[in-house]
Each structure stands twice: as structure tokens, then as C-alpha cells.
Write a structure and sequence with these properties.
Length: about 180
């Protein structure tokens, strides 16, 4: 999509083109939003759903406040980790360069009733990345949910941006997929 970050429909079209009936679908950061959209669109095509550096927003105000309190009690990033996140947030918030195409507004994702899904769900977030805000709803609604919080990792360092991927992150995903792979 010109000026945008992709669409869930792109994943559906690729799966159709490649004749992939069902898959383990995992997305990191904004990719987690695509996974959430796909759960609303094509839940029958998932083997597992994975959210890295992301999750799904809590729909209940009381539980949202509980999740925020849990995150607020966690230690915060300091030093180079905090500086890296500040630079990242500044880049994301910066206005688009003059003359660049405007990003198309993202369509509202389809509503997802997690209580009706039999899809195992994994969330992997850094401890400095508000992991409970992103996963509280999964705890309440998903039938099968595994939450992994990587100690002392930010949104960027959980995947080691600018370097080879973090082995712990990869191992967690591989183990989860192996556990639920239907061979």
C-alpha cells in the first residue's frame, strides 16, 4: 500500500496465492496489529497466533487500569536503552517529509471475540515495553495463551534492532510453534 505499512488483506492474498490453507502467523510491533486483524478476518486459517512487541488492547476499563498498574510497577529502561527508545519515539512521531505520499488511514480492525477462538496465542514483549498493557486481554479471554516477558528488553532490543535477532526471542517462538505444529 503506497505510503502505508501493509494490510491484513495482503497476507490473505499471499496465503491464497501460495495455496497455504493454515499457518502459524506471527507479527512484531505493527505486524501484531495485522495479526489481530487477521484473527477477526480468517481465524480458521491460523494454527497459532503470535504477537511480538505487541498484543491486543484491553476492552474493559477496570482491567485496563490493572494492566497499567502492573506495567507502572516494573523497572524502566535507563541509559542507552532509554535513549534508543526516545530516538525511536521521536522518529515515529516526526512529520512525514514534504512531498511524500500520505499514509492511507488504516481501516478499523474487525472485532475479535477471543473467547470463541481455539487458537493458541503467544505474546513476547520486553519487560521495558509495557508487556501487561498488551497482554491483559489475552489472559482474560484466550483459551490457550502463553506470555513471555524478556527481562531488561525494550521494544527495540527484544528483537535486537540493527543486529542479528535475539536468540531468546527466536527460541521462544520456535518452541511455541513446535508445541502446536500439526504435522
Amino acid at each position: 500500500m503506497p505510503g502505508g505499512s501493509g494490510r491484513a488483506q495482503d497476507v490473505v492474498e499471499l496465503m491464497d496465492h501460495l495455496k497455504i490453507e493454515r499457518a502459524h502467523i506471527h507479527g512484531y510491533s505493527m505486524g501484531g496489529g495485522i495479526v489481530a486483524s487477521l484473527l477477526g478476518m480468517i481465524p480458521e486459517r491460523f494454527i497459532t497466533a503470535g504477537f511480538g512487541g505487541s498484543g491486543m488492547n484491553e476492552t474493559n476499563e477496570k482491567y485496563r487500569a490493572e494492566a497499567e498498574a502492573l506495567d507502572d510497577a516494573l523497572p524502566k529502561a535507563t541509559g542507552a536503552d532509554a535513549e534508543g527508545m526516545d530516538r525511536f519515539r521521536s522518529r515515529v512521531a516526526a512529520p512525514r517529509p514534504a512531498g511524500s505520499p500520505a499514509a492511507a488511514p488504516a481501516p478499523a480492525p474487525p472485532a475479535v471475540d477471543l473467547t470463541r477462538l481455539d487458537i493458541p496465542i503467544l505474546a513476547v514483549n520486553g519487560s521495558f515495553d509495557n508487556p501487561y498493557r498488551k497482554t491483559h486481554r489475552f489472559w482474560r479471554e484466550a483459551k490457550t495463551f502463553q506470555n513471555v516477558i524478556l527481562p531488561n528488553k525494550t521494544h527495540l532490543t527484544a528483537i535486537a534492532a540493527g543486529a542479528p535477532p535475539d536468540t531468546q526471542y527466536i527460541e521462544v517462538i520456535a518452541k511455541f510453534i513446535d508445541m502446536y505444529d500439526r504435522k
